[in-house]
Design brief:
By secondary structure, this protein is an alpha+beta fold. It has helices at residues 2-5, 7-96, 98-127, 142-152, 169-190, 215-222, 234-242, 248-259; strands at residues 155-161, 195-202, 207-213, 263-269, 273-280. Strands 1-2-3-5-4 form a five-stranded mixed sheet. The longest helix is centred in the N-terminal third of the chain and has 90 residues, at 7-96.
Length: 296
């Protein structure tokens, strides 16, 4: 005890305190660097995983799109063949029975519009460049899509109500692509750990597809800022109600919905995440030719 009170003891105690402080600072710096390195590694891994998924979906898209074009082209060629046969019949009928020929020509016009619509559909699909996960994907491919997105880091819940019925291939493809694009956006903007809730509501003639995610909350949770999860203001609510969501992905989803008579909406939910909805009032009977420009 006397030694500690002596000048030598006080000096030794001071040196020990300084050394301890320096060691503490060094350990703190190493800890912060380690955490920063882990965050960078996590971000790099997430980016690489997203790139891998994007390439995988892009490659499958090319195969699927070519298959769709091939099938639609077969339909269009068959329709043109029928059109030629009807036109030849009208030609021979006109020589002996003009009134019957008029009715035959009317049928030729209708068949011509149908054939032209089929050909326009071929051109539309051929020019598209969005992602597909498999050749000619449809609603039967949704579970595979969920699996891929879960592997990438999304937490996906799926609910379905109403009686499901068979849709035309083009309609199924449109719904699938909207679902795929919405989930890809949830992963891109919300990141790993984002929860996406998918809902299919079948009506007698239509279908409503909804994808809600908690991307904002997920980002706050990852940053350790859970306290800010519910910290939203009136301005945030007003902005969510009045803002117009834009972007290439949003525009493409809206175009896909409109092609089959659907109404598309996308909006943010303050403090929570993002919501996408596509309502198809008559999807069961909509053939996808409505709205296709036939006059060109």
């Amino acid at each position: 005890m006397d030694w500690l009170n002596s000048p030598a003891g006080a000096s030794a105690s001071l040196i020990a305190s300084v050394v301890l402080a320096v060691v503490s600072v060094v350990l703190l710096v190493l800890l912060l660097r380690s955490r920063a390195r882990l965050r960078r590694t996590d971000r790099d891994w997430t980016t690489a995983e997203r790139t891998r998924i994007g390439l995988e979906l892009s490659l499958a898209e090319q195969t699927g799109r070519l298959g769709i074009v091939r099938d639609l082209q077969d339909v269009a060629v068959h329709a043109v063949g029928r059109l030629v046969s009807q036109a030849e019949g009208a030609k021979y009928t006109a020589e002996s029975d003009p009134s019957t020929a008029v009715r035959a020509v009317t049928g030729v016009v209708d068949a011509g519009r149908t054939a032209l619509g089929d050909m326009r559909r071929v051109l539309t699909v051929a020019r598209e460049g969005e992602s597909l996960s498999s050749p000619q994907p449809g609603l039967q491919s949704a579970q595979n899509l969920f699996r891929v997105m879960r592997d990438a880091g999304l937490v996906i819940g799926f609910e379905e109500s109403g009686e499901r019925y068979e849709l035309k291939p083009g309609a199924e493809l449109a719904v699938y692509r909207i679902l795929q694009a919405a989930l890809a956006n949830s992963l891109k903007h919300g990141g790993v750990g984002t929860e996406a809730r998918v809902s299919f509501v079948w009506t007698e003639e239509g279908l409503q597809v909804t994808i809600d995610d908690d991307g904002i909350r997920a980002a706050l949770r990852r940053e350790g800022e859970e306290a800010r999860v519910d910290a939203t203001s009136i301005d945030d609510d007003l902005r969510a109600l009045t803002e117009t969501i834009s972007g290439a992905g949003i525009s493409q989803m809206r175009q896909r919905a409109e092609l089959f008579g659907g109404v598309f909406s996308a909006n943010s939910i303050p403090g929570v995440g993002f919501s996408v909805s596509a309502v198809f009032p008559a999807l069961r009977f909509h053939n996808g030719v409505h709205g296709v420009e036939l006059a060109r």
